[in-house]
Amino acid sequence: MLSESSSSVTESSRPSGTDAPGPEEAGPAGTCPSEVYLKLKERASVCAAEIRKYRGVRLISHIDADGITSAAIMRLAFERAGIPCEASYIRKLDEPVMAQLLKEREEDPSRNEDILLFTDLGSAMADYLVDHRLTAVVADHHQPSGRPENISGDSSTFPFHLNPHLFGANGSYEISGSGVSYILASALIGEKARDLASLAIVGAVGDMQNRKYGKFVSVNREILEEGVAAGVLGYGPDLGLFGKQTRPVYRILQYSSEPYLPGLTGDEEACIRFLEKTNIAYNKEEGARLWIELSVDEKRKLITALISYCLEKKFPSRKAESIVRECYTLLREKQGTEMRDASEFATLLNATGRYDCADIGVSVCMGDRCEAYDRACTLLSEHRKNLVNGLNFVKEHGVEQMQNIQYFYSGSEIKETIVGIIAGMSSSLESVDRRKPIFGLADAEDGIKVSGRGTQDLIRRGLNLSRAMTEVSEACGGVGGGHDIAAGATVPKENMEKFLKIMDLYIGMQMK
Q1: 292-327 b/e (C-beta count within 10 Å ≥ 16 → b)
Q2: I want to staple 296 with a disulfide (CB 3.0 to 4.6 A). Which of 20, 96, 356, 360 is the partner?
């Protein structure tokens, strides 16, 4: 159960000194810290002081890109501070996992000399930690749940809880788990943590925290500016499609799912014809051209053609404009690799975590560009094949429509760790009703894994998947949580139909 391992684009967001599309240079200088950032820093100082009292740290983190970067940030901080750290990476934190941590300490009392640290999870376990008198630091950004006295900003029963929701911020888009870890690392080692801002941004991109406004805001923005000042990050308007560092241009169009490009997505020949019509050479002597190999004029020409194409296809202007987004570059990484682009880096990390190799992703984050990177690339290739197969499953079997929700049940055909990604990708299919949230269900060892995905339009209508998953799963004998736009749960298999019926009613009440 616990695997272990030691140790909208605006002019103001354009990088200064460049007239080209692309986030290759630093952005403008940052501003004074916000009130929320200051409160988080103050709480982080309390947490860091507690950590220093112990011999070492027992770190538990999530397996997605945000959890992996969170763990890597803290492990690098502990390494620089000379603090021993033992780490585990888990799919979910529940009472059985907590019971195993308790058992570890009962069987080996010396483990009590190490403080527990939870990153990118833990805020739903406040009551358990208090009730079992476990001293722990929680650095999370998910919606906390528990008794009010344990999840308040001034809690005396659980004072080592670092979470933006405790201070009036939204962990869905204002700061990620890796951002919270970055603040804790900064409290622990000061300026020596500044370069770790790049990993915080990768984690935030992996959690899609830049989607709501088309850029980072709030504390995420402040962390971004710190990374810019440290010389590790650049940002600016660029093509908003995935794969600019590593995919041939025609493949970028072919595999685009956000946004879905009708007539282009999924059709290689159509994408090549589109490039030819735009007078952009897609090949060179050495092979297909990458986005980063296009000239400034070619990039502008292609972006203009794509926006025009979307408008011709009757895209809403806001969706057409999403062809250009604020993008984020890790300036110290090699051009043409996944690590150079925050979105591609996050996908690489997700591929390791989804296949029970989060430790490989952490090693890449910590600088391994040999064995760990090669293994991560192999996992990424497998991940992409599984995503294609998963999406094809949904296309073939369709989506079941209920009054307020839609869902697909994949049984064991889709791995439980990627069913949420498939649910998100399925939103672009013509058979999916974008007026409803979509739920993907897959068999898991301990029941049925459910992943829900919404849109910003649905959130504006009242959707909150975090609350829905938490309350409906509990009513069905399961456990769940997450964010307003994306959340997950595990429920007993025999209660799957009950879960769907109650969820349909619950979402209907949210969005009435």
Answers
A1: bebeeebbeebbebbbebbeeeebeeeebbbbbbbb
A2: 20
Read off the tokens for 239: 């093509």
Give the count of beta carbons closer than 10 Å to the beta carbon of residue 261: 24
Length of the chain: 512
Q: Could you give the 3-state DSSP secondary structure of residue 450?
A: strand
Cα end-to-end distance, the chain, whole Å: 41
The reported pTM is 0.86
Q: How many CA atoms lie within 13 A of 128 on its CB side?
A: 17
Residue with tokens 């290689």: 268
- pLDDT tens column, 182-241: 999 999 999 999 999 999 999 999 999 998 888 999 999 999 999 999 999 999 999 999
- Count of CB atoms within 10 A of residue 263's CB? 12
Question: What whole-number distance in Å separates Cα of residue 39 and Cα of residue 82?
Answer: 27
User: Phi/psi at 232 (nearest 5 deg)?
Assistant: -105, -15
> Which DSSP symbol is given to 290?
B
Phi-psi region of 190 (alpha: psi -120 to 50; beta: other; left: phi over 0): left
Lookup result for tokens 């456990």: 479
Q: Is the dihedral of CA 433, 438, 443, 448 positive or negative?
A: negative
